[in-house]
Amino acid sequence: MSSNVSPTAPSPEHPSQRESDPPGGPRLLPGLLGIGVVLALGALLAFWPADATRSEARERRQDGPQQSLNGHVGPAVGVQARSIDNASNPRMSSALSHAVANLAPHAKPEGPPAFDTPEQEIAWYQKQLSLAQQELENRKRYVDRLPGQRERLAGDPNAKARLEQFERTEKNVHDSLARAQRKVEALRNKLAELQRG
Question: What's the pTM?
Fold first, then answer.
């Protein structure tokens, strides 16, 4: 039966396909045509002259040359730089903005401000004395905590290295306490002087 069939004649199982046709037969042709169309469109998009789109963009853009960050003056091409946002953001909560503002170091005034009346000067020194007394109380509290910290260091395996660091810290705490005491005493003397005078 196979000897009677010629190679160019259609087979009885597949009447439209010849034995010499590649597998897939005529159904392969639309797929190849589709791939060719996609490749042609891709080539058109990739190699299309950009002059037409640039002229349209120039018409939509504001007049006048623009200067880029690298100093190039001319029509803007590509991605342009955004303007920098202000540091004050209206969407930020006031508590957060105050916290962020307090992160920056502020210069402390060297001395008292100028006063119009002696009562204003006395009130300012009273406030300063109150703040200095609070600071003195904090320093005393730190000194009171030192013996407990020394006891906790005794059981530490790295006690020698940490003890040296603790002694430096202890000296700084005592120095801070002495400075706070001197400041409170100076403010008390100045306030007594102002109240007498």
Answer: 0.44
- Let me know if residue 20 belongs to a domain: no
Q: Pairing state of beta strands 73-74 and 66-67?
A: antiparallel
pLDDT at 186 over 80: yes
Residue numbers of the domain that contains 142: 116-196
Residues 41 and 29: beta-carbon distance below 8 Å: no
Residue 149, domain member (yes or no): yes
CB 112 within 8 A of CB 122: no
Answer for the pair 68, 76: CB distance below 8 angstroms, yes or no: yes
Instruction: Give the DSSP H or E segment for 183.
Output: helix 159-196
Note whether residue 60 is domain-resident.
Answer: no
Burial of 125 (0-12, 13-18, 19+ CB in 10 A): buried
DSSP letter string over 84-97? PPPS--TTS-HHHH
Question: Which are the contacts of 68, defined by CB distance < 8 A and separation ≥ 6?
Answer: 76, 80, 81
What domain count does the chain have?
A: 1
* Contact in structure between 44 and 34 (CB atoms under 8 Å): no
106 within some domain: no
30-80 pLDDT, tens digit per residue, is: 888 899 999 998 888 888 766 656 666 666 554 455 555 555 565 556 666
